[in-house]
Structure prediction request, 76 residues.
Amino acid sequence: MDAGLRLLTKTRATGPYRLWGDLTDRVELRPHEEALALGQMMTAAREWLLLDPHDGDAVRRYVQHWLYDVLGHEHE
Prediction:
């Protein structure tokens, strides 16, 4: 099983699901934000490919940055 699939089968997958769900919702539900969301998707994908998915701290920092700093979710 590849590293990405292993990540998504663990409980910490909630963050990436929320992140990508939010970005795809913006494209589908807020057409006026499509260009911004597509740009953010490209950046998020590039950043994901640069990190080590086996490094839980790196994955956590990535998700927190995108959910809280970029997309404006409230801290839980």
Summary: The first helix runs from residue 3 to 8. Helices lie at 3-8, 14-29, 34-50, 56-70. The chain has a mean pLDDT of 84. The CA atoms of residues 12 and 60 lie 8 Å apart.
